[in-house]
Amino acid sequence: MTHKSIPTPDSFTLRIDGTDVVAQVGQSILEVAQDHNIGIPTLCYLEGLTPWGGCRLCLVEIKGSGRLLPACSTLATEDMDVTTTSPRIERYRRTIVELLFSERNHICAVCVSNGNCELQTLAQEMGVTHVHVPYRYPTLLVDSSHDGFRLDHNRCVMCTRCVRVCEEIEGAATKGVGGRGIDSMIINDLNEPWGESDTCTSCGKCVSVCPTGALTEKGTTFADMAKRRERRELLPYLTQTREGRR
Amino acid sequence: MTNATRPRLATIWLDGCSGCHMSLLDMDERLIDIASVADIVFSPTVDTKEFPENVDVTLMEGAIGSDEDVEKARKIRSRTKILVSMGDCALTANVVSMRNLFTVEDVLARAYDEPGSGNVPEPRPGESRAPKRYVPKLQTKARPVHEVVEVDYFLPGCPPPADAIHYTITELLAGRAPDPSHLTRFGR
């Protein structure tokens, strides 16, 4: 057991998949599950950034609630009875991954993130070998106007990690979401070419957190993409130090 | 040597690069093991011209890109007990689907008419060199095989590693349902 399992005045007990687990006040279901090595798939969630709850892959069943709730943005409460996997949840999760593949033009074989892509890994882990819905094949642009980085909308899954890291960690708020529904796009400033942005500091944090090949550093190879994960590990530390200063 | 009781295997190459078949050949000496227990009755690697009846397992490489691909896929489906989509083009249309962002006319013009397409002399204005006969007609979009015919098993990879192909074939020959996800994935 980890130190997080030792009861304190701020801790309480709930059940996840039939097992009693100890949680701290203020923890999300996902954080509690991760503390106890219970795997829940995620895509938009990234430790160190505000939970977004947009991808819906971490949906879990909670006894007494008719609808599924996202584990990343639902607070754990005392005596909660959580189920992280069931045929219904598995079906929903697989469908979400299939819809993500069908929405844009994800072609793993020609992507620089091949082998280091979270969407690709999710598909493998969930046994998604083909997509049951028709592909959309939208015509999408690639923004190569920035000197160092590239934004390929074909590979974007709209997780908004880049939007959050840009605002919450870098404080630049260059990245945003434009459009509505299925036409939503990551934009720079007021939908300007990235290279013409007045606010971008070229820090590259957005590239580090991108789960797919949508944001890349120009001139990088397959091998370089593996390093993204290492750079991300700094995020929780940055958040902590910033909170300490407040 | 053929035998009425031996399983009948086939492989077919539709709208793809043949890389999956290269990977199939990468099974090396294991091909001899498979040939000793099953008959390969149709494949780019054998000389049969017409897809035979009563095939037990067919591995289908490539997307459905042309009218001819649709005809072949339907015929093969009707003559095969177990159809396996082999490789990302068959599963997702993959690289082949990159043409889906353009019209067929633009794709053909790019290949046959535009400067740099290798045609000398350049075609006259308003005239296309795209073949009008003999070459199968392209469909509006390249599609995964399972959008056209029912598929029983899916083998991802670009190409699927030889180990994943070998595992899939041997499991099917043993009468089991293969799940090759531990050996391969999209883009592998």
Descriptive overview:
The complex is a heterodimer of chains A (246) and B (188). Chain A is α+β, with helices and mostly antiparallel strands and 246 residues long. Chain A folds into two domains: 78 residues, Ubiquitin-like (UB roll) (Roll); 138 residues, Alpha-Beta Plaits (2-Layer Sandwich), CATH 3.30.70.20. Chain A has eight helices and ten strands. In chain A, the strands form three sheets. In chain A, strands 2-1-5-3-4 form a five-stranded mixed sheet, with helices on one face. A three-stranded antiparallel sheet of chain A has the order 6-7-10. A two-stranded antiparallel sheet of chain A has the order 8-9. In chain A, strand 3 and strand 4 form a beta hairpin. The longest helix of chain A is centred in the middle third of the chain and has 17 residues. The two termini of chain A are 32 Å apart. With 188 residues, chain B is α/β, with parallel strands linked by helices. Chain B has a single domain, classed as Rossmann fold (3-Layer(aba) Sandwich). The chains are: A alpha+beta (246), B alpha/beta (188). At the A-B interface, helix 3 of A face helix 4 of B. Chain A: It comes from Kolteria novifilia. Chain A: Pfam families: Fer2_4, Fer4_Nqo3, NADH-G_4Fe-4S_3. Chain A: This is NADP-reducing hydrogenase subunit HndC.
